[in-house]
């Protein structure tokens, strides 16, 4: 009996050891400072990916052959299959010329602000959070402004409900609600970016040094998230970008909290989205395949949901 027990324990030990050996991981660091880079997007191929944690580490699934690492503040890098248990990858920082959007050196003690964007529109639907998903709203420069305003805060209308999530049931043409049994709270990265002159999509360069992180579980108040320093509103217009991030091992289709409130009131849709782990580039919201079938068109009556994002500016 004792002999059988010893054999079982030995087999279990070997299996655990083999699993530990095959478990591979990457640690991503800044090539100049050697500091770990948190929340680096790592794409494994086959519509799968994840983010590095605060120590810059991520586990790589077995069988991964090609890996692409990207971060808004660093040059994108692709590497071949990881062949060791642990490997450090260095990313080179991006040097960005921000002549068009100079950082303000001084912040007045008393400022009068106003809001631009879609924060005051009616909430008519929601967009669930998903790992590696980005949504952006383009806010144009107002030609009636007598002087260039400064951007002070990023605003977002978020829903932190953890019990129910709205979705569209195509069989009934109605919104239905499904329970989130185990809520996963996402870390959010807010950013400002210029539009690409050719495509109109958000550029890959951040105007605020890689964006601002809102930690998982921390709610965004009505005053939004303040910029470290105000920046002049670009005359080309500007994109407000929000990205959902989690280091949990979940699929891209897994629901994350919070969701983003959306409106249907806008005649001209200026909302774009990007699915990082499907290796897809930015697309306008009206080009999203989910809105193209007959049932969705009937439900939305030809309208496309627009993201309730905005900015607090001073003039």
Descriptive overview:
The longest helix is centred in the first third of the chain and has 21 residues, at 2-22. 9% of the residues lie in helices and 40% in strands. It contains two helices and 23 strands. It has helices spanning 2-22, 294-300; strands at 24-30, 41-45, 48-51, 57-60, 66-71, 74-80, 86-91, 113-117, 125-129, 133-139, 150-156, 158-159, 164-169, 174-179, 187-193, 212-214, 225-232, 238-245, 256-263, 271-275, 283-284, 306-307, 309-314. The chain is mostly beta strands and 315 residues long. The strands form six sheets. The protein has a six-stranded antiparallel beta sheet with strand order 16-15-18-10-20-21, with no helix packed on it. Strands 3-2-5-6 form a four-stranded antiparallel beta sheet, with no helix packed on it. It has a four-stranded antiparallel beta sheet with strand order 8-23-11-17, with no helix packed on it.
Q: Please state the CA-atom Rg, rounded to the nearest Å.
A: 22 Å
Give a quick account of the main beta sheet: strands, pairing sense, barrel closure.
6 strands, antiparallel
Element string (H = helix, E = strand): HEEEEEEEEEEEEEEEEEEEEEHEE
Which of globular, elongated, flat, extended, rod-shaped describes the shape? Answer: globular
- Taking pLDDT < 50 over at least 5 consecutive residues as the criterion, the unreliable ranges are 14-21, 98-107, 165-177
Number of helices: 2
Strand percentage = 35-45%
Give the strand tally: 23
Q: What is the average per-residue confidence, as pLDDT, rounded to a whole number? A: 82
End-to-end separation in angstroms reads: 83 Å
Helix content: under 10%
Numbering strands along the chain, what is their spatial order in the largest sheet?
16-15-18-10-20-21
Q: Which structural category do the helix and sheet elements fall into?
A: mainly beta
């Amino acid at each position: 009996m004792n002999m059988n027990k010893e054999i079982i324990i030995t087999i279990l030990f070997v299996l655990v050891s083999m699993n530990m050996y095959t478990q591979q991981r990457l640690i991503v660091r800044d090539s100049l400072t050697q500091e770990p880079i948190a929340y680096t997007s790592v794409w494994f191929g086959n519509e799968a990916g994840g983010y590095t944690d605060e120590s810059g580490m991520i586990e790589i699934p077995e069988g991964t052959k090609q890996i692409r690492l990207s971060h808004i503040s660093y040059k994108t890098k692709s590497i071949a299959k990881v062949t060791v248990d642990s490997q450090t990858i260095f990313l080179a920082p991006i040097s960005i010329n921000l002549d068009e959007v100079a950082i303000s050196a001084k912040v007045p003690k008393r400022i009068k602000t106003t809001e631009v964007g879609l924060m005051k529109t009616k909430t008519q639907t929601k967009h669930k959070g998903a790992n590696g998903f980005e949504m952006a709203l383009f806010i144009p420069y107002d030609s009636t402004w007598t002087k260039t305003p400064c951007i002070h805060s990023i605003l977002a209308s978020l829903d932190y409900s953890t019990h129910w999530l709205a979705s569209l049931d195509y069989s009934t043409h109605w919104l239905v609600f499904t329970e989130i049994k185990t809520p996963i709270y996402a870390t959010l990265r807010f950013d400002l970016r210029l539009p690409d002159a050719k495509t109109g999509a958000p550029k890959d360069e951040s105007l605020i040094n890689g964006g601002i992180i809102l930690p998982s579980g921390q709610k965004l108040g009505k005053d939004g998230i303040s910029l470290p320093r105000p920046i002049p509103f670009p005359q080309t217009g500007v994109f407000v970008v929000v990205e959902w991030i989690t280091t949990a091992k979940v699929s891209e289709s897994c629901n994350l909290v919070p969701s983003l409130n959306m409106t249907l009131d806008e005649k001209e849709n200026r909302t774009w989205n990007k699915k990082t782990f499907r290796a897809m580039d930015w697309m306008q919201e009206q080009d999203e395949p989910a809105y193209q079938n007959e049932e969705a068109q009937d439900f939305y009556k030809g309208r496309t949901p627009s993201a309730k994002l905005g900015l607090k500016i001073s003039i």
